[in-house]
Design brief:
Bound molecules: adenosine-5'-diphosphate, magnesium ion
Number of helices: 10
Distance between the termini: 40 Å
Structural class: alpha+beta
Strand content: 25-35%
Radius of gyration: 20 Å
Helix content: 25-40%
Strand order of the largest sheet: 8-10-7-11-9-12-13
Largest sheet: 7 strands, mixed
Order of helices and strands: HEEEHEHEEEHHHEHEHHEHEEE
Amino acid sequence: MNEFELIDRFFASQPIARDDVIVGIGDDAAVLAPPAGQQLVVTTDTLVAGVHFPESTPPHSVGWKALAVNLSDLAAMGATPAWFTLNLTLPQSDPAWVGAFAGGLYALAQAHRVQLVGGDTTQGPLSITITACGFVPASAALLRRGARPGDRIYVTGTLGDAGLGLRYVQGQLDVPAAFRDQLRKCLDEPAPRVREGEALRGIASACIDVSDGLAADLGHILDASGAGATVDLGRLPLSDAYKALWHAVGGWQVALTNGDDYELCFTLPADRADALDGIAARFACGFACIGEVDATPGLRLRSVDGSLYQAETRGYDHFR
Ligand code: ADP
Ligand code: MG
């Protein structure tokens, strides 16, 4: 199958058709109609085989995850996703692989009504770049720089599960059978917190998605806001799987510094806690309050006994 047949078979026709796509795949560029009065939010992320996902990852999961990491960035801005483009670099033309990849991609695209509107297909080592676009009402985007001393710090869902999934897949961690599928799913097919991000517009003072580990990503909020924070380790939300493996993985470290969780970390003024309670019932993932912003620069991690805890690293850095 050549390049054009691949595009035709898997990307030209697709399950999502939005009214605001005037011209989608098939011309030299897409023509799109953003809603009046809204601001456009644009993000892009690349996944490289062997760097961002293990080479053994099933193609369905690669497709899902490539879109998920981008939707997670839109979620962190409080944006409602609408469109995306796909730049696919493949070692060879393998219709079975591309079909399964497209299946994972479209499963997530359908869940959030986002449409693929263009892309590029090339040959080379497996790599996927997606650019995703969404909307926010004027000036409503959630930024990193809005945290203020006294704000509470929250995270959605649970932390560290993708890190445990990775250690399991790499044969570094013995995981009880009952937890294996769940941890693999967290690693391979994370659920971007899109609806949570939208609901946090007007409530959160700052927001980021946890892609590089909580300590690093909360650190970005603090740096951008010119503030510091204290986080209580005992309040970090952990899954039953993590709790069961707590000793085997060396305690808090994975939850604090492993990437790939794609939860949201956000801050809000204490007087908006009622507003958060008002939306919390809609979201099964839960919002855990883990600490507070203060004026002393830096991030302090407080152990259950009150002593300060030193994390070993601040998360993943490609060029370190
Ligand atoms: P051009 O030579 O103008 O770049 P291409 O032959 O690369 O055109 O692409 C033809 C059409 O197919 C374009 O509309 C392009 O957006 C779309 N396309 C190519 N690759 C992909 C892909 N991986 N996913 C979605 N659309 C794609
Ligand atoms: Mg092209």
